Amino acid sequence: MSTATPTIATAANFSTAPRLAFARVVRSEWRKFFSLRSLVITFAIAAGMGVAIPILITAFIGDDHPIRFVFGLLTQVPATSQALVLLAVGALVVSSEFKKNAAITTFVTVPQRLQVLAAKAVVVLAITLLVWATTLLTSLAAFYIRYGSKASLDDALQSITMPLLYLLFFAFIGFFFAAILRSSAGAITSAVGLIYVLPIVALMFFGYVPVFEKIAYYLPIQLTNRLFLPVDAAHPVSLTLAIVVLGVYVAVAGVAGTVLMQRRDIN
Question: Over 60: is that where the pLDDT of 146 sits?
Answer without folding.
Answer: yes
